[in-house]
Amino acid sequence: MKTMLGMAAAMTLSAGVAIAAEKWDMPMAYSDSNFHTQNGKAFASCVRTGTGGDLDITVHGGGSLFKGGEIKRAVQTGQVQIGERLLSAHQNEEPIFGIDSIPFLASSFDASESLFAATRETLEETLEEQNLKLLYSVPWPPQGFYFKKEVNNVADMEGIKFRSYNSATARLAELTGMVPVQIEAAEISQAFATGVAESMISSGATGYDRKVWESLTHFYEVDGWLPRNAVMVNMDAWDDLDEEDQNVVMGCAELAAYSGLWRSKQYTDFTMKGLAENGMSVGPASDGLVGELKEIGETMTTEWLNAAGESGEAVVKAYREATK
């Protein structure tokens, strides 16, 4: 009798283990309404459905679980299993993380996809050395300048407090005579409202989500670059998944990359109209300003190549060959 009770208890325990879902937390830096966060939630739903509930990912938007600057480290050290981060914010760790923020190297959606294709293998290898696995990457819309006054040339930027979000934007501020101030996405509205910052280069999506028309007046389209967000998994957590669930996650990641690109393109037009409808002056920058910015872009490209060395040169060469 005791033996039968023991077997029954063991079977019950085994069944409980079998149906217990693996739960992952996924911090994201952007508001729940942002297309990256919406895409992340769709990815989590895909994984939940595809694994039959074996893997349940909870998305925490708006920097609510970890702030943007903390997310990569949190995933890397296993504080959370998965997260999304703007990798160019970590260019100080590895130059390859900042390749998508070199001004005018890749300034369209097609070019951004080609640059990522040329970069992906090196990027994956670099992340694996940091105990991270790259799942998918989605570009932001093309970057443009926000100001609270009319700007027609670089001289007009002198002394303006400029929101930077990575080393490339900080360097851009220096080369244009502006004053860089490091500000995460979740803090943008407050920074502009309080005068901590007076300008930024970002997508229409960021400006629209943060209602920057309450503080700023002009958006200039320059299509400087398309920075990319990357969704990464802690390698130990990844290795704990069985092969079937890993395959589901990678399949959902491919869908998320495709869906995210589509969302980014659609959101570009929507947010441009939204900024204008809320009173901002929206339009292309002057030819003179674009010309000056492209000269600065050449300087920053040279600086990046010098820092990245042979591996960086090889990536840029492969990208340029593919886009001839």
| Overall pLDDT metric | 93
Low-pLDDT regions: 1-18
Indicate the structural class: alpha/beta
Quaternary: single chain
> Which geometry do the CA atoms define?
globular
Q: Main beta sheet: strand number and arrangement?
A: 6 strands, mixed
Total helical elements: 10
C-alpha Rg (nearest Å)? 22 Å
Secondary-structure element string: HEHEHEHEEEHEHEHEEHHEH
- The level of helicity is 40-55%
CA(first)-CA(last) distance: 78 Å
Estimate the strand proportion: 15-25%
Number of strands: 11
The side-by-side strand order for the widest beta sheet comes to 7-6-8-5-9-11
Brief descriptors of the model:
single chain; 324 residues; alpha/beta; 6-stranded mixed beta sheet; 3-stranded antiparallel beta sheet; 11 strands; disordered N terminus
What's the SSE blueprint?
Blueprint: H1 2-19, E1 22-27, H2 35-50, E2 55-60, H3 68-76, E3 82-86, H4 109-128, E4 132-139, E5 144-147, E6 161-164, H5 167-176, E7 179-182, H6 188-194, E8 199-202, H7 204-209, E9 218-221, E10 228-234, H8 235-240, H9 243-277, E11 281-284, H10 287-322
Parallel strand pairs: 1-2, 6-7, 6-8, 9-11
Antiparallel strand pairs: 3-10, 4-10, 5-8, 5-9
Helix pairs in contact: 2-9, 4-10, 5-10
In short:
With 324 residues, this protein is α/β, with parallel strands linked by helices. The protein has helices spanning 2-19, 35-50, 68-76, 109-128, 167-176, 188-194, 204-209, 235-240, 243-277, 287-322; strands at 22-27, 55-60, 82-86, 132-139, 144-147, 161-164, 179-182, 199-202, 218-221, 228-234, 281-284.
